[in-house]
Amino acid sequence: MEQNRYERGVQRLKEVDDIAGENVITSLSDISPDLGRYIIEFGFGDIYSRSGLSLQQRELATIAALTAMGTAQPQLKVHLHAGLNVGLSRTEITETILQMALYAGFPAALNAMFAAKEIFAEVDKREIV
Amino acid sequence: MEQNRYERGVQRLKEVDDIAGENVITSLSDISPDLGRYIIEFGFGDIYSRSGLSLQQRELATIAALTAMGTAQPQLKVHLHAGLNVGLSRTEITETILQMALYAGFPAALNAMFAAKEIFAEVDKREIV
Amino acid sequence: MEQNRYERGVQRLKEVDDIAGENVITSLSDISPDLGRYIIEFGFGDIYSRSGLSLQQRELATIAALTAMGTAQPQLKVHLHAGLNVGLSRTEITETILQMALYAGFPAALNAMFAAKEIFAEVDKREIV
Amino acid sequence: MEQNRYERGVQRLKEVDDIAGENVITSLSDISPDLGRYIIEFGFGDIYSRSGLSLQQRELATIAALTAMGTAQPQLKVHLHAGLNVGLSRTEITETILQMALYAGFPAALNAMFAAKEIFAEVDKREIV
Amino acid sequence: MEQNRYERGVQRLKEVDDIAGENVITSLSDISPDLGRYIIEFGFGDIYSRSGLSLQQRELATIAALTAMGTAQPQLKVHLHAGLNVGLSRTEITETILQMALYAGFPAALNAMFAAKEIFAEVDKREIV
Amino acid sequence: MEQNRYERGVQRLKEVDDIAGENVITSLSDISPDLGRYIIEFGFGDIYSRSGLSLQQRELATIAALTAMGTAQPQLKVHLHAGLNVGLSRTEITETILQMALYAGFPAALNAMFAAKEIFAEVDKREIV
Q: Which residues does the UniProt record annotate as the domain Carboxymuconolactone decarboxylase-like (chains A, B, C, D, E, F) (predicted)?
């Protein structure tokens, strides 16, 4: 069953964001491969594989939380990309970030909005190429 | 137009959570009525009146953020109630909270889950009466 | 000179808030008297005894920070009282708290405003008696 | 193997703090039993079952982190008790808390120290009885 | 009146920090112009236009809060510059930052102090030119 | 005795991490030498000179806290280096960081793990040279 959790997690991570996800796992391989394994098993094999919320709802919740926390800029960027991947519109993403000004203040919303600007520009660039 | 923002905000707040919203505004009336006014004008007249996200999406994002922040238990309870009001299911709410364990740790998820337990029990009690 | 720092700290703490300060020190006496001693020596003997800012400015900065942090409600209450003690007006205090909505969000401002409401009521009660 | 993780987690949780751990799991049973299950499987079956750190080191790290975060008072109390259970001395615990004043400020250290005072008193009371 | 809020906000922002403020608004224009508009309308047209605190007190409070939060380095730099602009002395700024070591720990004070060092050097450079 | 605290602090800082510590103090010399002095006197002359915890326990607690806080990346790097200096193994350090996923979420653990990867690589490089 462990194997199942890992395989299910890898599968789910691919649906969410295959490139960014793989990058994180690879960059952990020489310092803490187990941290990478837990992200796949617990993060994607357990939590993101649950029913009850769509992947779009899950990414919207994650973007809201990481914006509000303000301590996880690299992970926010991964999930901004993942949000687009699973079908959130750019408007849904920027509205979610904007709303966080109410709960976590304008700096939190600003820093996340600039991250969104960066990710959207990267996506545009890839699409042109 | 200021008047419009205020009236629009009052209207929107009623759709979201009329009792809890009114309680906050009333309890501010003798210490900082302007803080209450800004919550209505900016929070509900501006932000929650925007298009681009449904009220259900807005409450899901807010519940995610307040769970992750861990510093706003009273406001989390208001929005747990508001989430139910605008049509989020209990499962959507508990799944959102559960997912926050990944981003903000188990204590954040636990404290929000116990808040949900409390709010759901309150709602059950009112409904029985 | 250690003695000097301690005595200077005790003196400074008395100017800022003699009752609340003493309560904290007393309540630490059986668990960590050294934490109490460091608050007096470093907090009040060193920092609050520095020139460059008035005590009113120091308390305004502290109230702003504790409001924004949202994790130090008991200490916020001590400094709301201390702020009044050193001559900040109630308006200066509520304006400072209100402004924090911009930087730390409405929940942070709300929770601090309710703390101010509580402290102002306590002060009113003592003054009537 | 899932079964193994759960059983290993239950076993490990018992070593760390059987009563407090059981209370958390029980209180989640009617709102989110899966959150309880993940705490056992991932928290205790995976992480706390790893080699590389002693249980005393693990509890010392947890007490330091929860003190510094300042958003997890109920969980801090559980781990103050667990710290004593796995053999940390009261001095090791209060020294850890005290040191956090350097990294997270005096309010964080104060609030955790008062939690330690409460837990130590509870333990004393049980021992007398 | 909306127009009034916006115009009053632009005016107030100019008094506080015309260049940095304009940069933020411009950089938001292609991703979320409304976030820029709210900062002007609500941030500067509403809050910073209130009476009850001087602009110097408002910037001192903001510098204290952003230092303590530790999640808003870009906005802290804007307000360090704004603080100088509205007449805070460098000593008042560094004393405010230093004091935050007590409430948010040394890392928060250190990171803000290095930001102040950077901003003061930038200002010196402009003044020499 | 002040002199004693300073000298004792310098001595203790040397035991913990002579290069990194000196860098911080030097870089503060033209903006706030007193902040550097307090870090030596209070941080190292008072706290790190206390008995009750070994230097290894102190660094483990600090690494745990800075990982969980997520707002002090530069100071985390200093203490990752200091941890190695006082005899923590790389495994003890990565296990401590990994465990923080439980309490502060995966982004906190990830960002600290990448900091550890960087510091370990730096140390390897120096050792080869």
A: 33-118
| Domains present along chain E, CATH in parentheses | 1-50 (no CATH), 54-129 (1.20.1290.10)
Please give the Cα distance from C21 to C23 (Å, whole number).
5
pLDDT in tens, B28-52: 999 999 999 999 999 999 999 999 9
- Pick from B64, C63, A13, D100: which is nearest to E65 by CA? C63
Measure CB to CB from residue E39 to each of A71, A106, A108 and give the nearest one.
A106
Question: Which two tokens mark E64?
Answer: 């204290």
Which residues of chain E have a CB within 8 Å of the CB of F25?
none
Out of F42, F60, F69, closest to residue D60 by CB: F60
Write down the pLDDT at residue B49. Answer: 97
How remote is the C-alpha of F40 from its chain's centroid?
A: 13
Longest dimension (CA), chain C: 45
Using left for φ > 0, alpha for ψ between -120 and 50, and beta otherwise, residue A54 falls in: beta
pLDDT tens for each residue of C47-92 = 999 999 999 999 999 999 999 999 999 999 999 999 999 999 999 9
Contact F75, E110 (CB under 8 A): yes
| pLDDT value, residue F1 | 57
| Beta carbons within 8 Å of E1's beta carbon, 6+ residues apart | B1, B2, B3
Q: What letter does residue A51 receive in the DSSP assignment?
A: S
Contacts of C2 in chain F (CB under 8 A): 1-2, 5
**Among all residues of chain C, which has the CA nearest to that of E76?**
C103
Out of A24, A32, A69, the one facing F94 most closely (by C-beta) is A32
